[in-house]
Amino acid sequence: MTALVQSAAKSSVLPFVTAMILGLGIITIAGHVQASTLHDAAHDVRHATGFPCH
Q: Which of 2, 24, 25, 28 has its CA 20 to 30 A from that of 18?
């Protein structure tokens, strides 16, 4: 039974660590990009998904 619990604990750690690394990477990149570039990228995503933005 303990092997099953340990296996479940290990399998839930990997997605968490991956999400943390991805999130920190996005925050780091967004912090260093120029504001106009970030705005244009968000604007393009809104149009691509069909969300009205103006």
A: 2
Under 8 Å between Cβ of 25 and 33 = no
Question: How is residue 11 written in tokens?
Answer: 């399998």
Who's near 52: CB < 8 A, 6+ residues apart? Answer: 46
The rounded distance, in Å, linking the Cα atoms of 7 and 29 is: 34
CB contact at 8 A, 47 and 53: yes
What is d(CA 24, CA 38) in angstroms, rounded to the nearest whole number? 16
Q: What is the DSSP letter of 51?
A: -
Q: Is 54 a residue whose pLDDT tops 80?
A: no
pTM to 2 decimal places: 0.49
